[in-house]
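Notes from the 1:1 (GR / supervisor)

We went over the backlog. Supervisor wanted to see one worked example end to end before approving the batch request, so GR pasted a single chain during the call. The sequence is below; no edits were made to it. Supervisor asked that the structure be written out right there so they could see what the output format looks like.
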Amino acid sequence: MREVLLQRMGYLEFGTFGRLHLPDGHIIYTVERPWLRNERGISCIPEGDYTCRPSRYHRGGYDAIEVMDVPDRSRILIHIGNWPADVQGCIAVGERIECIDGKLGVTNSKATFHRLLMPQLGHAEFTLAVRRPQEAKGWAPSIG
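Structure output shown during the call:
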């Protein structure tokens, strides 16, 4: 199974930010809620390895990616969003991290999601390795 790295860059009181290393070498950026002890709907997910699979974001009306087997959580999706408030325990992706309207978030989420993320990861299961920066050093995807 393909492995993909989500390298967390910063745990701030209002959100968690990271880099998602795509199989083709592109890096896109992520935004999540802050770490709040893995509480449902208000916390980012804990570091670890998770199986991801194609799914549907029914509220948004589009295909997305579901992160499976997060301890004590369900229905964690990777979907479109710009700020921590746009996700309820899920992960949103964008082109880069920037201050937008006075708030830190990710830019061009919809285009990044549809142009880069979904074509590469939206059609088959893969393993998502979520790591703190120091834990990601030396990490390499499996070949095969």
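Supervisor's comment: Residues 109-121 form the longest helix (13 residues).
Batch request approved.
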